[in-house]
Every structure is written in C-alpha cells, then in structure tokens.
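Entry 14. Two folds queued back to back today. First construct below, sequence then structure tokens.
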Amino acid sequence: MKNIDDIFREKYERYSKMLFRIAFLHLGNTYDAEDVLQNVFMKLLYSAPRFSDEEHEKAWLIRVTQNHCKNVLKSSSRRNNSELNEELSQDKVSDLSKAMDISLKIKALPANYKTAIYLYYYEDLTTEQISKILKISQSAVKMRLKRGRELLKSELEEYRYE
C-alpha cells in the first residue's frame, strides 16, 4: 500500500508541469507561477475534496490554479514582466524569439480566451473536456476558442508568411 508521500509525489509529477504552464501563461512570471503551484499543491494536500476520478481531480486542479492566478493578478504588489523581457533581449535565436513572442501574445489575451486556448492546443483537451473543467457549455468553449484565435490572428500577422 502506498503512503501519503508516494501518492502526493505521483500527483505532483503528473500535474505540476501542466499547472505551472497555466500559471505562467496567466502571470508571465516564473516566481509567481511557482508560488501559485505551491499554493495549489498545498490546497490539494490539506483541503481537497474527494475526487470521483482522475479527470475530476485534474479539472479541480486547473480551476484552483486559475483562481490563484486571478488572486495574484488582483494583488496590488504585482511585479512587472522584467524577467520575460530580459530573456527575450538576451537570446537572439529567432525560433526562441518567435515562440516567446507568441507566448506573450497568448498571455496578453483575456483570461477566459487564454485558458481555453492553452487547454485546447497545449494540453490537447477536447472542447467537451474543457467545458467540464471550466464549468461552461461546449458552445461557450468553442466561442472562446474562436474569439481567441481571431485576436491572435491579428496579433500574429507578422508571422503570416513564415
């Protein structure tokens, strides 16, 4: 039988990268994303509900991550994104620069669009899975994806012919 440490370690290994990317996408800052990740796993460890299955657990973790990100963004002591700006100015590799530019443009999207786009394109979730996680209808997910893509399309016009 597994002890609580082993179970927690498995959950951390299974979800930490995905949750970190969601937090980083919302916050644009490694330090804040790490803080959110720590808070989410503390909540999982000490006050998580009983999950009916792995999908329910994953959905709960994503929602908790989003909520913690919103709280960080609301706080008046937000740092600017100097960490990202330094990384962009130091690295001259065009592919990395383009990837970071796209990430920044995704980060600049309104929260509801960026979450839907991240889950759909980066986590390969279906619109049905996203609707369950975000507790919205599938048509609302599709609309968020459509509007998010439209916003990104206009922002990424410079890469059109690459």
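Second construct, same run, same settings:
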Amino acid sequence: MARTIFCTHLNKEADGLDFQILPGELGKKVFENISKEAWTMWMSKQTMLINERKLNLMNVDDRLLLEKNMSAFLFDGEEVQIDGYTPKEK
C-alpha cells in the first residue's frame, strides 16, 4: 500500500516515495514532503541540468549545484534554469 503525504511542491495529497532516496536531513525532508510525481519531475530537470551543463558528479561543486537547484525546485517553487531549453507552451 502506498504512503500518502501532502506534497509541498504540488500542494496536494499524493503518493509518497517508497524509501528515503537521499541521505541526511535533506533526504529526510524530501522523503516526508515530496511525492513520487514531484520527484519524477525533478529527475527530468536534473537530467537536463547534468547534460546541458556537462556536470561531473565526481566533482563536489557540481553536486552542490545540483543539491541547490533541487532544493529551490522542490521546496521554493523555483524553475531550474537550463541554457538553451525553452519549456513547452501550456
């Protein structure tokens, strides 16, 4: 049976993640407040960010950039800035 949480990114009740994906306090915050749907949205943005900026996840600065963008996207409602990407019109 799926866990239901109030997703702070989507501002609605939704299925929660099955397990804590990230370590530490940030991981706990994501597990308790972010839904599977919002996490999937972030994963798509993260992939584009890694590819467009040619990030190296072995580099601490690149990992910190991803973490900063993840927090801003999931918790502050900020859009991820990806050079050369124009979102589809709604």
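Quick look at the second one. The mean pLDDT is 91. The beta strands are 4-7, 12-15.
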